[in-house]
């Protein structure tokens, strides 16, 4: 395994920090969000990260890990070095990241939540997914999070916010002024965008 370099990058959420690697952890467009230790059953590295008593959420995407801490009084400067060292050592040693391929899991989850939409809803949903993937997700990933499409029904788009977006003070503003406006402009059938995963 070649040497891993890793750096920390602040996100708009003061409680979340993005750790960017020069190594691919997941295929582009695939990400996993673990809001609790129990949800991280598929990821040994996430389980280990939850072993740090201040880690409250772990989000993993193509080449970064976003960690959200549970102790606002704990400054990042004191914990970044140990988190960075842990992730670097784990990946360099070839530690198991996932026990089940998250790409396959994600496909199965999307198929399950799609239900049986009408043909028109299916067409509109695909347009929404394409817009989210091409215009919204890259920007959200820059901030250490992710947005996934959940459903489109009666003009309402439901999305899931993950990683640093969950609990971010500006998430609701971004959702309404940015994402909702974009989708309404590009897809006339959209009346509103609501999100799951925003922790207040």
In a nutshell, what does this entry contain?
It comes from Hymenobacter bucti. This protein is of the alpha+beta class and 200 residues long.
Task: Write a structural description.
The chain has helices at residues 44-50, 76-92, 102-114, 119-142, 171-186; strands spanning 6-10, 16-21, 32-34, 55-60, 64-69, 145-153, 156-163, 192-196. By secondary structure, it is of the alpha+beta class. A hairpin with a 5-residue loop joins strand 1 and strand 2 (16-21). The longest helix is centred in the middle third of the chain and has 24 residues, at 119-142. The termini are far apart. 32% of the residues are buried.
Keywords, separated by commas or semicolons:
3-stranded mixed beta sheet, 200 residues, 5-stranded antiparallel beta sheet, alpha+beta, NFU1-like, Nfu/NifU_N_sf, 5 helices
Strand portion, in percent?
A: 15-25%
Please tell me how large the radius of gyration is.
17 Å
The SS-based structural class is alpha+beta
Low-confidence stretches: none
Secondary structure: number of strands: 8
Mean pLDDT: 86
Number of helices: 5
- Silhouette: globular
What helical percentage do the residues reach?
25-40%
Pattern of helices and strands: EEEHEEHHHEEHE
Main sheet strand line-up: 1-2-5-4-3
Straight-line N-to-C gap: 41 Å
* Oligomeric organization of the protein chains: single chain
Please give the largest β-sheet: 5 strands, antiparallel
Protein name: NifU family protein
Family: Belongs to the NifU family.
Pfam families: Nfu_N, NifU
